[in-house]
Design a protein that fits this description.
- This protein is an alpha+beta fold.
- It is built from four helices and six strands, in the order H-H-E-E-H-E-E-H-E-E.
- Strand 5 and strand 6 form a beta hairpin.
- Helix 1 packs antiparallel against helix 2 and helix 2 runs antiparallel to helix 3.
Length: 137
């Protein structure tokens, strides 16, 4: 029984990692020079109704509606972004990801220092949707 529990938990964790991958794909679509409001809606569809977005370094805590407003304000500001996952830690209803977030501005310029900074984000889940996004960088 213990072995089957481990296998079922591993399968569940893999499903959560797949959800994080979907989120990152949606984020890349939002951070593209041709991004649209529909791209923002697609990203937000992965979140629970009461999801929150937190960035402790800046004492930022946003509701889903506030997060939407922030995402919409950035439409067209990026040229293109690529998220390169370096490490994934899966836990009970949570996934922590270490990654690089390589971006260019709308003119094709990039900031080499920012692009080599490793970022860490915690995703917590409820009913197979993202309930919390917390950035640690």
């Amino acid at each position: 029984m213990f072995a089957s529990l481990l296998l079922s938990n591993a399968a569940f964790a893999t499903d959560l990692t797949a959800k994080v991958n979907q989120y990152f794909e949606a984020q890349e679509a939002v951070e593209h020079k041709n991004s649209t409001k529909a791209d923002v809606s697609n990203l937000l569809a992965l979140l629970t109704k009461d999801a929150t977005f937190e960035h402790p370094r800046f004492n930022a805590v946003q509701s889903k509606a506030e997060y939407r407003k922030g995402l919409l304000s950035y439409l067209g500001e990026y040229g293109e972004c690529d998220i390169q996952v370096e490490n994934v830690i899966e836990g009970l209803n949570a996934v922590t990801v270490e990654y690089l977030h390589l971006c260019t501005d709308k003119n094709g310029n990039s900031n080499p220092e920012e692009n080599k900074q490793k970022l860490v984000t915690l995703f917590e889940f409820e009913n197979n949707k993202i309930k919390l996004i917390r950035h640690y960088f």
